[in-house]
Amino acid sequence: MGSDASKKSAISEQRQRLIIVISLAAISLAFFMVISLLSPPPTTNTSNLKGNGMTKSDIMVHNIKSVDSNLNIKLATPALVEKPIVEVTNKKSEKEVATIRADLEAQVRAIKKTGVIMEADPKSLELTTALQAATRDLLKVRYGDYGTKNYRIKFDLEFQSTIPDFETKGKDGSLLIELAPISLIPCSVYNFLEIARTWKKGAFHRNAGHVLQAIARSDITQSMPFQEYNKEYPHKKGTIGYAGRPSGPEFYVSTQDNSRNHGPGSQQKHNPYEADCIIGTVIQGMEDGTVARIHTMPGKEFLSDKKKWVLIRRMHILVPGDGPDGYVEFSSSPDVIPVD
User: How is 241-301 classified by DSSP, letter by letter?
Assistant: First the structure.
């Protein structure tokens, strides 16, 4: 019995010594980790890092990774990294943007008057490119920035009693136009939005074999500053273009492919690049018969009798939104009928 008690006592003393050793080791490890965490991270020559193009946030990530490699601890880097410093620029007002654009437009009009072939002249191309960029800025400020979505315009039409099917179809009609991407032809789009926004009166008054041409009465009385054209948006059937050289403000609907009639080199022998400015495409009214109905105006070419015209009573500017078809009305012109 005495021998067994002695053995148990010795085993108990060994366990106690082992516990003490383990405890001391654990305390030492914990103390080392605390000291390591409190010590500053390995220094980095930030001036050299900045010289290599690293931002303040990049340098912090570099230092955090250094600590992580020394301690072998996975740190939540996004939570520790300072947010990137965003440079805040003062946005220009609509008036300021419009002033910049107006100045560039004046310069483009001046160079247009010299008769130079603008499409092949470096100075002209520089100015027209700058005008297009300023026009995009003004479009986004005045009418909204909708990314790759395009602006639209709806025409309210009135057919007069001279139209052959008046008794069966009545006086009302409409056309829906989707304007071209402003990435391609911003000046043409801007000009037509301004026509629609300040619309007073107008009508389809020319019934030609290849186009239906309309007069346009609005605050826009000048033609386009230059013949803006992009080969990615040609004069296909259903497109709308500005009439004349220089173009506008009158416009036409192409009832056939008019790439050869109104495209580059079509009407200027000395200039193989110049083309009619283009505006957009009819997306409702081309296939449902509205355009075909306008084409039945009695007579051909320019109609002198105003009673035979198809009146454009009103224009509505539509922009992308939460409407039933993905668009909402931005503005509409007054409902007017007189055509002088």
Answer: EE-TTTT-SSEEEESS--HHHHSTTSS-TT-SS----EEEEEEESSSSSHHHHHTTSSSSE
CB 255 within 8 Å of CB 295: yes
SS3 163: coil
Q: How far apart are the first and last CA of the chain?
A: 132
259 residue type, one letter: S
Second CATH level (architecture) for the domain 149-332: Beta Barrel (2.40)
pLDDT in tens, the chain (340 residues): 445 555 555 556 666 666 666 766 667 666 666 555 555 554 445 444 444 444 444 444 444 344 344 434 333 333 433 434 333 345 789 999 999 999 999 999 999 999 999 999 999 999 999 999 999 999 999 999 999 999 999 999 999 999 999 999 999 999 999 999 999 999 999 999 999 999 999 999 999 999 999 999 999 999 999 999 999 999 999 999 999 888 999 999 999 999 998 999 887 778 999 999 999 999 999 987 899 999 999 999 999 999 999 999 999 999 999 988 999 999 999 886 555 5
